[in-house]
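Hi Prof. W.,

I finally got the Ribonuclease D prediction working! I wasn't sure whether to trim anything, so I left the full sequence exactly as given:
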Amino acid sequence: MPRPQKFSFPTPRLITTTDDLAEIVARLIVEPFVTVDTEFMRERTYWPELCLVQIAGTEEVVLIDALAPDFDLTPLTVLFDEKSVVKVFHAARQDLEIFLHIFGRLPAPVFDTQIAAMVAGYGDQVGYDNLVGALTGVSIDKSHRFTDWSIRPLSAAQLTYAAADVTYLRVVYEALVAQLKRENRVGWAEAEQKALTDASRLTVNPEKQWEKLKARTGNRRMLGILKQIAAWREIEAQTANVPRQRMLKDESLLEIAATVPRTAEALARVRGVTRGFAEGRMGADLLATVTAASDLPDADLPKPARGKGTDGPRPPQALVALLKVLLAHQCEKNDVAPKLVASSEDLDAFALFQDPDGIILTGWRREVFGNEALALCEGRQSLGVKDGRVQLIRTDD
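And this is what came out:
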């Protein structure tokens, strides 16, 4: 960690009225970039409860109390829609999900310093406090990370903590942009940032929730039931605004799909299902969903994931292992985070098909890893070890 630097930031201002927010937005909208963070609670609800929005510009830091009475946050959309102002976040996904839910659209353009840090070689999914420390030498106080942000009034310590999440982010952003320019990686970072403004990536599809349950079965009928009841749970949880696990636990869904209860009495015997639930409106709806899924034609049933009863090709594990070694070698050589270059699923697909349009052979990833991976798969090079280090050995010379 470098020697701690000293910084002077504007005094944070708490915003609790729509008029004050509109005034602040009018000033911030001329900035080249603003840093943004949120504090929220989601332990008790399906949709995150926005409690605070922090924004820092060149000359002001504002803490917007989203729970203040009669407070309309709509003026924020003027800033978020302004294309000339870059909205800078760290680990932006949850913040963007909140704004998409509240406003129906995403801020743009967006820059995520966590993604940029991965491009710049600071490791996989580096935390904000670690990144601030690496770039400035400053230790961020994280003692309020798990505080209840819905309780009012907020303490002075909470407000100081919240402000630090956007003040030092300005320093981090400028340092990362400068580094990316020096290393000619601005294009790499920009390519990765584009996905952040794709709303479809942040929208939950109830019809795909069953895939996250990772059922260990090749029984397509069971999977068909699981798909339908997982979608039912998701929609019910969204409507009631309660966490999906509080509505019905994953283990209960898996048992229902396996045992196929037809009556309230049978449903009540499932672990985690109360008699009140089974005999009530939701129990009746769930049983109707089970019955409908049981009657689906075979052609409409989902296929199991690869490796769970499928007849599809499986990637050669020895080749996948070699690709993982090559990935680690190339990422160390190029000082970039491996998870940003290729996931395990990407490596599996590459070992099977070497798709020229796949992510590994597209854009900057081809330069960093794809060309070498293709040469390995085609037998034009191999891996060796010399003096304790991996080496690439050309075999087509």
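Residues 156-182 form the longest helix (27 residues). Does that look reasonable to you?

Thanks,
D.
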